[in-house]
Amino acid sequence: MFPYDGRLRLLRAKHAYSPPEIKEILHLATLNKLEVIPLVQTFGHMEFVLKHEALAHLREVALFPNTLNPHEAEALALVGAMVSQVMELHPGARWFHVGCDEVYYLGEGEASRRWLQQEHNTKARLCLSHIKAVACHVLARHPATRPLVWDDMLRSIPEDQLSASGVPQLVEPVLWDYGADLDVHGKALLMEKYRKCGFLRLWAASAFKGATGVSQALTPIEHHLRNNVQWLQVAARGPADVLQGIVLTGWQRYDHFSVLCELLPVGIPSLAVCLQSLLHGGFTEDVKAKVENFLGISNLEVTDFTSEGPGSFPGSDILALVTHVSLHLRSSVDSLLERDRLFKVSQRRSLNHPRPPRLPGQPQWAHLHAWVCPQVRERLVQPLPPQAEARAPRHGPAHPAPGAQPAGQVERRGAGAGGRPASCLLSGCRGGVAGGERAAQPEAATGLAAGP
């Protein structure tokens, strides 16, 4: 969605934001006490770059467009050009996320195989070398900007190798895990390991949508609530003053070639629940009442999809429509398929039926289709107002997930700024809740991404 230009213009999506639109977004963010942190994938999740024939020679493995070849000087130059163009439209950004998660097939390219045959060369060293090169590029041109990096490629690297690499002095790792059964003790130990290696600042990453299924339509709020509450437990056990905040990600898709996860309006109730729980240290009755008031929902259910009323928040009509389609269409299709299966079984067993039984799922399906299509079209395909007709469209296909998560933006709330898809809204009080309610809680961040 970024308007890459010049020799990078082929990376621009058809409906990418224009530079004036990005400036408008940044201006509105400032007015609302938000700080924007850009994210650009620079190692893995490079499908949106390496899918192009003109850049295919920069793949680590020729068949797969997801990982950049770290041995090619042109590859680092490409990444540097991408970073420079993004930073040009984000002057003064205090953080810049360089991605580097899920670098699949690293070490399997021909150049890497030759390099690994040399003494003392390992995949860990290869990975750290590229991360260091990218971070140095950012810091050399923007010394006041601190690089962030996803941590999964660092987890298994021994402490002595991490310490000796020089990477801990250059980047701040973002520990990500979106499961509902987090290993709290293990995550606290991982934070301690990173601290011993020399990383002075760490971030955590949870999720409020996506992350539970590549084609998930409705958001399982309970899953994401448990994930966020457990990250609070990790924060309480981890080294003091090391964790800078929790990035509350919202996946758009798992990777550049995947279908979309939940639409943003569908995930807004989960976003409200998770963010308020992070800010207040848990999901109490008072927090639940506050969320219901925000959303205009009389009784919010976090264990299923049966909340009373669709709510009055922007996009609530889309949530109601998707809920109706998902719950009713699925049962209708399941019924249709089951009846068809039984009919075919009876045919194979030569049971006598004068005529096949009527399949009630068929008229239900047709009726639902006839009702849904106009509803979707009416809500999602609306004409622009007259004064906007000449302007470029504001929205388009999601950017590549950085698994999903895609090049994107990470946004931070408040003046004290501490992203698979790809923006994060961070609360405005370092090391605590906005307004100082619970100083022991880390800052909360929300984002649309394909997190890793």
From TrEMBL:
Name of this protein: Hexosaminidase D
Subunit (UniProt): Homodimer; disulfide-linked.
CDD domains for the chain: GH20_GcnA-like
Subcellular localization, as worded in the UniProt entry: Cytoplasm; Extracellular vesicle; Nucleus
Taxonomic source organism: Mustela putorius furo (European domestic ferret)
Family membership noted in the UniProt record: Belongs to the glycosyl hydrolase 20 family.
Function description: Has hexosaminidase activity. Responsible for the cleavage of the monosaccharides N-acetylglucosamine (GlcNAc) and N-acetylgalactosamine (GalNAc) from cellular substrates. Has a preference for galactosaminide over glucosaminide substrates.
GO biological process terms on file: carbohydrate metabolic process
Keywords for this protein: Cytoplasm, Disulfide bond, Glycosidase, Hydrolase, Nucleus
Pfam family, one: Glyco_hydro_20
Domain of life of the source: Eukaryota
